[in-house]
Design goal:
By secondary structure, this protein is mainly alpha-helical. It is 67% helix and 4% strand. The strands form 2 sheets. A 5-stranded parallel beta sheet has the order 2-3-4-1-5, with helices on both faces. The protein has a 3-stranded antiparallel beta sheet with strand order 6-8-7.
């Protein structure tokens, strides 16, 4: 900013409309300047009571940002628009000169409004692309009324755009409590104006010296500038010696209303029920008048300083004015007007989103139209705002009298919404309440089918099995029967008799196809895939998941993971390339990315994928895979020799299982505890943990140990538990027999048998098999063990085997394993009078970045967006975002500009 600009700004700080806000404006000016100058993204929060001046400061900041070349999106949340997804953000994104988003961009986004994570990620990508040419300001007033999807976006997007020059300016009555690791946040609380500022304000309105009596009257405003301005307007009109100005605004508005004609008063009251902004036609309908006949009333309301007209909608000049008019309505009249407003809006062809906010303020038990509209609204928002859908469905259920047959259908919808929202206990309680009313048998069966999903998520498998069986005994509807049979197969997938589970699943699939029921078919195919995985039959699992993915593309991640289990890495990679950017299940898609990268030995990329998957689950508050993610991250930490990180991960796992025990999660937890105990030298405890995992949860042995048999056998052998080691080796051999065409199980079987029997020939066979497969870390482990065995016999082939293993581990970043092999290799080199060069570990700066992070940093410095960098690296934009967050943390930078400078400096040094 030039000296002239700074002087002009400072001179304008204290002027009419901004009296007493000099310090706040300085903070906002600094925020704008920091984002403009390349310090990365930022959030500004304007917080204060109604009328305290938030809107004036927001608009002043918008003007300042525009003057400095920002692209600006300025919107406002509306109290009665909570059911319109993304309405609060869209109100600004589509307006502006130029608009931040084109109508085409937004139409594409709106077409996928049911995929909230995808939608927000794509919106963030579009904003990132816009910010590449100029800094961006996104300002939202009255954020306390933001619709749930906009609120979700405001929680998620600032962190996604952490590295971009985007300033978020949010004004509201309270702190919006944004969560997540977003950019720096500056909160600007707006406190009451000082006496001196009020005196300046009075001088602006009245001119000359301010009488002492006026100063005393202004004390009644409580330092609120809007209330003070209203008082001063009254004084200017009637004089300080006239009727005493009211102490609070409601009384002042009553005074204005008293001077209005009754018809104008009715019109304003109708408008106050419709919200701060409303259509003339809607208010006319609520008044029972023709819109064209309200010209006189509208003119009078505008002349009284109560309304503005922007050409499309009418707007109360301040929400405090609307609230004052609204508060002047008798409660029973207010309620009746809301109910009538809902009916008239529906009759006029408006959406449920327009009518339902009024129903929430007015509907009474037995109101079937309200129940129907609430149910429709709940269905409309279920995919994108399940919590809101659950609340709407529960409200609808409250309006249905207990003996009304509607209760069961409405209750079924409530159970589904509660389950989708992760409110499992409440879903079960709602279902049990309905079942206690002794519904007809087919209704009973349908409720039990819906509750099946709830019980699965609650991990109450015995109850799921019992209820499915009981409902199947009475059901007559073919579709419900197919769903119940599929649920029964899922329950049996957790048991010991997987052959019976498979038969049940196949029967469910046949019933689903005969009934033509999509939901039953999805559950049956998924259940058959689960059963195959638990049976260790990778080809069968792939067949079922491929069929499921073809039937419903949302399950493509499961197909990818199944192909990874089959060592079909190229095919898995191709599927992921086609899936990235599509509105699928992003968290599960990142899990699939992580599974592939883990198999490829790309530990840094796998870690980034898992971090992203966990973050995406946290965004929607449904941490379904948290335990598995943290167990794998704990194992990665141990591979790197980072015991502190491993302890952090196991701590998260323990806390998660304490709140929600799960048999499968218990097994993977026990496994990681075994790895940590073994690393501590407590080998007996480690072996006991392994036995516990298999004894208590036999159904997970193939899923848990599929790629971990070698490590498990080593733990058993170090504990001196030959029996456990032999049992594990036998399981590995059985797994290979069940997967005859997959290299990894056969290489693993040879490796485990070699360890149990101390057989060098089997180690050599294991290495040969792994060389035909795609997993470098498995090959490195076999090569390392082969090198140790050969070294013990003095065979010169030990050094090449150990060197090969070391290079793979070092390249992958598996520092602990690399160091272990390195120690053996050093001893071998000393025997042969050779030396190896040490590789000191970096502790700070550019050298701490992983290879993937360095690639991302260079691409970003070259001007790539997250999306284009992801395309160049053939990874997900989510992964690039995670890498960037790590880069910023390691290099202590806050923006792409700072990162670019550092990359260029590093290149010059090199």
């Amino acid at each position: 900013m030039t000296v002239e600009e700074t002087g002009a700004l400072r001179a304008g700080l204290s002027r009419p409309g901004l009296r007493g806000r000099e310090a706040e404006l300085e903070r906002l000016r600094a925020l704008v300047g920091a984002v403009r100058d390349g310090d990365g993204g930022a959030i500004g929060l304007l917080v204060g009571e109604p009328g305290i001046g938030k809107t004036v400061l927001l608009e002043e900041t918008v003007a300042l940002a525009r003057a400095h070349g920002f692209l600006v999106s300025q919107g406002r949340a509306e109290e009665l628009h909570e059911l319109a997804p993304l309405a609060s953000l869209a109100s600004g994104l589509l307006n502006g000169e130029p608009p931040l988003l084109s109508a085409g961009d937004f139409a594409h986004l709106a077409g996928h409004h049911d995929q909230r994570i995808w939608l927000v990620e794509r919106l963030a990508q579009l904003i990132e692309e816009r910010s590449a040419g100029a800094p961006v300001l996104i300002a939202i007033d009255d954020v306390q009324w933001a619709d749930p999807l906009s609120r979700f976006a405001l929680n998620v997007m600032p962190a996604r755009l952490l590295t971009s020059p985007v300033l978020w300016l949010l004004a509201g009555r309270e702190d919006p409590d944004l969560r997540g690791n977003g950019p720096r946040t500056t909160t600007v609380p707006l406190r009451p104006l000082s006496g001196a500022a009020l005196a300046e304000l009075a001088h602006d309105v009245l001119g000359g010296d301010v009488p002492e009596k006026v100063t005393g009257l202004l004390d009644g405003s409580g330092g609120n500038p809007f209330l003070a301005a209203e008082m001063l307007a009254g004084i200017a009109a009637s004089g300080a010696d006239g009727t005493a100005p009211p102490e609070r605004l409601v009384l002042g508005v009553r005074g204005r209303l008293a001077a209005l004609r009754p018809e104008t008063l009715d019109f304003l009251r109708a408008g106050s029920v419709l919200g701060r902004s409303f259509r003339l036609a809607d208010a006319a309908a609520l008044c029972g008048r023709a819109a064209a006949g309200l010209n006189g009333e509208l003119r009078e309301a505008i002349a009284a300083g109560l309304l503005d007209d922007d050409g499309e909608r009418l707007l109360f000049r301040h929400d405090l004015l609307r609230q004052a008019v609204y508060a002047d309505l008798v409660p029973s009249v207010r309620r009746a007007l809301h109910r009538e407003a809902a009916s008239r809006l529906v009759a006029a062809g408006r959406t449920c989103a327009d009518a339902v906010p009024h129903l929430l303020k007015s509907a009474e038990p037995g109101d079937h139209e309200a129940v129907r509209l609430l149910g429709t609204a709940a269905a409309d928002v279920l995919a994108v705002m399940p919590d809101l859908a659950a609340d709407l469905a529960l409200r609808a259920l409250e309006l249905v009298p207990p003996n009304d047959p509607w209760a069961f259908g409405v209750g079924e919808q409530a159970i589904t919404a509660l389950t989708r929202a992760g409110r499992y206990t409440q879903a079960r309680e709602t279902g049990d309440m309905l079942l206690a009313r002794l519904p007809p048998l087919d209704v009973y069966a349908r409720l039990q089918s819906v509750l099946g999903d709830t019980l699965w998520h609650l991990d109450d498998i015995p109850e799921l099995a019992r209820r499915s069986t009981a409902a199947l005994a009475v059901v007559t509807d073919p579709a419900t029967s197919a769903r119940l049979t599929a649920r029964q197969a899922l329950a049996q997938s957790r048991g010991r008799d997987l052959a019976a589970a498979r038969a049940t699943g196949q029967r469910a699939l046949a019933e689903a196809e005969r009934a033509g029921d999509r939901e039953a078919r999805v559950i049956a195919l998924w259940g058959l895939g689960e059963i195959a995985l638990n049976s260790g039959e990778c080809a069968a699992a792939l067949a079922h998941h491929t069929a499921l993915s073809a039937f419903d593309a949302a399950f493509l991640p499961e197909e990818v993971v199944a192909r990874v289990h089959m060592d079909e890495f190229d095919c898995a990679r191709q599927l992921l390339r086609t899936a990235d950017g599509e509105p699928l299940r992003p968290a599960m898609l990142m899990w699939a990315h992580g599974s592939l990268n883990l198999g490829l030995g790309l530990l840094d990329d796998a870690e980034a994928d898992l971090v992203t998957a966990e973050r995406l689950e946290a965004d929607i508050s449904v941490p379904a895979n948290l335990v598995n993610i943290r167990v794998i991250r704990g194992s990665l930490a141990m591979l790197r020799g980072d015991r502190e990180a491993a302890e952090e991960h196991i701590g998260v796992v323990r806390a998660a299982l304490a709140g929600r025990p799960n048999p499968g999660n218990h097994a993977v937890h026990q496994y990681l505890e075994a790895v940590l105990a073994d690393a501590d030298g407590d080998h007996a405890t480690a072996a006991a943990r392994l036995r516990s995992a298999q004894r208590d949860n036999p159904f997970v042995r193939w899923r848990l140990l599929r790629t971990r048999f070698v490590e498990a056998v080593k733990i058993a052998l170090r504990a001196g538990d030959q029996s456990l080691a032999e049992d594990l080796a036998a399981q590995s051999a059985e797994h290979a027999a069940r997967n005859p065409s997959v290299p990894t199980p056969h290489g693993t079987a040879a490796h485990t048998a070699a360890l149990v029997n101390a057989d060098t020939a089997l180690l050599e066979r294991s290495v040969r098999i792994f060389r035909t497969g795609p997993r470098p870390l498995h090959l490195a482990a076999a090569s390392a063990d082969l090198g140790r065995a050969l070294l013990s016999t003095g065979d010169g082939a030990a050094i090449p085997a150990l060197t090969s293993a070391y290079e793979v581990y070092a390249q992958a970043g598996a520092s602990a394993e690399a160091d272990g092999v390195r120690a053996v290799l050093d001893r071998a080199m000393i025997r042969s009078n050779r030396r190896t060069a040490a590789r000191p570990r970096p502790t700070s700066g550019w050298a701490t970045l992983t290879a993937s992070e360095r690639k991302v940093a260079r691409l970003v410095a070259a001007g790539h967006t997250n999306r284009s960098a992801a395309a160049a690296l053939v990874v997900s934009p989510h992964t690039v975002n995670t890498h960037l967050a790590s880069i910023f943390r390691k290099l202590s930078v806050n923006s792409r500009v700072q990162l670019t400078r550092l990359v260029l400096a590093q290149a010059e040094d090199a």
